[in-house]
């Protein structure tokens, strides 16, 4: 709908108010899918700030409250939004999931799925840099594994940071099978870059 062009002419606080007024954070998931398909059709695309606010309003509460795999509607909405606004999505959602205490098994699985199937290479690198900014935990190892599974060539500075982090954290993961698999993956995928 042409009315959606208003989304990019709002200030951040107005956009948050509009989302609240339209009840977007709690709208039924089929409506969320439709709304995200409308966002894809917007021309020109939303600004980074507007997209980040929408990512927060549309998905943050839903993703952080997952206790079972996301419904196909939620997954369709996430995939749709990520296809056009992956950078603001990663900045908002991935950061929130990384800072969430506890196991967060469903959130971790979701992040792995998005890394493996939805995100562009530059966004995968952004996820990697975000993961390396927080202390490593068993919950984050599958995300790093998913990043390496993409077989992308990593920028030298990011690879150095990954290797350095793994070396520093090795004693804490001495008995972790996941950590051993991750180190093996680094040596396999990045063998031309690791000396």
From TrEMBL:
Coiled coil: none annotated. This is FANCE protein. GO terms for cellular component: Fanconi anaemia nuclear complex. InterPro entries: FANCE, Fanconi_anaemia_gr_E_prot_C. Gene3D superfamilies: 1.25.40.480. It comes from Irena cyanogastra. Residues 1-194 form the Fanconi Anaemia group E protein C-terminal domain. GO terms for biological process: interstrand cross-link repair. The gene is Fance.
């Amino acid at each position: 709908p042409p009315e959606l062009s208003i989304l990019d002419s709002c200030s951040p606080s107005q956009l948050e108010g509009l989302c609240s007024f339209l009840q977007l954070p709690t709208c039924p998931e089929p409506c969320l899918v439709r709304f995200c398909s409308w966002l894809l059709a917007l021309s020109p695309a939303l600004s980074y700030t507007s997209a980040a606010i929408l990512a927060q309003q549309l998905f943050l509460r839903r993703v952080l409250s997952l206790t079972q795999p996301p419904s196909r509607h939620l997954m369709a909405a996430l995939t749709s939004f990520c296809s056009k606004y992956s950078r603001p999505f990663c900045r908002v959602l991935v950061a929130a999931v990384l800072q969430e205490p506890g196991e967060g098994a469903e959130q971790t699985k979701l992040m792995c799925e998005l890394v493996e199937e939805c995100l562009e290479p530059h966004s995968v690198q952004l996820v990697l840099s975000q993961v390396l900014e927080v202390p490593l935990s068993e919950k984050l190892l599958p995300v790093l594994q998913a990043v390496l599974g993409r077989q992308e060539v990593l920028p030298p500075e990011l690879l150095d940071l990954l290797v350095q982090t793994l070396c520093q954290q090795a004693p804490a993961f001495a008995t972790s099978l996941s950590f051993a698999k991750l180190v093996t993956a680094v040596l396999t995928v990045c063998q031309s870059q690791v000396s």
